[in-house]
Amino acid sequence: VLSPSSHLSSGKLVEDATLTRDGLTIHTTVVQGLGCLPNGNVYPDVTPGLEKGFAPGSGPTHRGKTWDKSPQAFGAVPASPVEIQIYLTGPANHAVIITDLKFHVLSRKPQLRGSWLQTTDQCGGGGYDHYGIIDFDTPPPYWLPAGALPKYYRTDILKFPYTATANDPAALVIDVQMEHCDCTWDAVLSWIDGTAAKSAVINDNGHPFETTSVTGMTGTDWHPDFQDF
Fold it and tell me: What global pTM score does this model have?
C-alpha cells in the first residue's frame, strides 16, 4: 500500500515533481497539453469564441484569464500525446534496480469534440534517454514499437530493468498516446533496493491525469515566430 508521501504530482502543463526515498531521487516532469508537439488543450465546441483561434493573451476571458492562462476554466482537456520524463538518481553507495513502469487507465469516455489550441516555444535538447510509447486505446494499456526514435533526444528503446546510482542515473521518456478516448489515468514506478521492493504513484496532485484524443480535429498552434492553422 502506497503512503501519501509516495505520490509524485505534476500539473496540466509543464511542472516538475521530486521524491527522495532511501537515497533514490525520482524527478518527474509531465508535459501534458502545451509543449513542443503540435497539439494542445482541446476546447469543446460549446466554448464561445475560441473557434477563431485567438492569440495567447487575447480573446474571451474567464475571471480575467485568457484561454492559454486557464485552460480548465474554458472546459479544456489536455490533448494526446503526453510526454513523461523521469530522471532517477540512486544512492551514493549502491545501485537501485528500476524494474517497471505500469500504467492504469481508470476511465474511458469518447474523445472530447472541439478544437485544439496551444502555444509553443523552442524545444531544448535532452540527455541520453530510454524511450517508449504507451497506448491507451485498447485495454489494458500496451507498449507500442517505438519505430523511429525522436530526433530531439539521444535515445534507445525502453527495456526494463535499469540500474540507477548517484554517478550513473537512469532517464526515461515515455509518450502516452490515444486515438479515440478521453481517458483518466495514472502510473506506478517500481524498483528494488537491496531486498526491498518499492513503488511510487505518478499522478496529478493526488488525482488521475485526464487526456483526450485529437483524432480528426483541427486547431491553432501559436509560436513566437509563426502560426499554423
Answer: 0.84
